[in-house]
Design a protein that fits this description.
With 121 residues, this protein is mainly beta. The chain has no helices and 11 strands.
């Protein structure tokens, strides 16, 4: 079993920055075996894919709306993946979730509880 815990959310003004963290735990967990994704869900909207870092750690993928503003990275020694969010916009307001997808699978098997990000205009 894998547990994911997000942190770092909060209230920030438009144009500001936040860094979200997602710490993974579990007896057999290894970043080398999982793609780590970030998702968000705004009030009244469906959950949206934000981006991911592949199990190899070599490549990342982002949704167009956050490209050049958000960066995903990981620290294997801390079992933590990060979402650095810059130039935040009010439309980035949402609950942000991290999730883990076993390599070569097409779904995310494990999810965190989410952390609220609110961007004021």
């Amino acid at each position: 079993q894998v547990q994911l815990v997000e942190s770092g959310g909060g209230l920030v003004q438009a144009g500001g920055s936040l860094r979200l963290s997602c710490t993974a735990s579990g007896r057999t967990f290894s970043f080398n075996n999982y793609d780590m994704g970030w998702f968000r869900q705004a009030p009244g909207k469906e959950r949206e894919f934000v981006g991911k870092i592949r199990w190899s750690g070599v490549s990342t993928v982002y949704v167009d709306s956050v490209k050049d503003r958000f960066t995903i990275s990981r620290d294997i020694s801390k079992n933590t993946v990060y979402l650095q969010m810059n130039s935040l916009k009010p439309e980035d307001t949402a609950v942000y979730y991290c999730a883990a997808s076993a390599a070569y699978t097409r779904s995310y098997q494990y999810w965190g509880q989410g952390t609220q990000v609110t961007v004021s205009s």
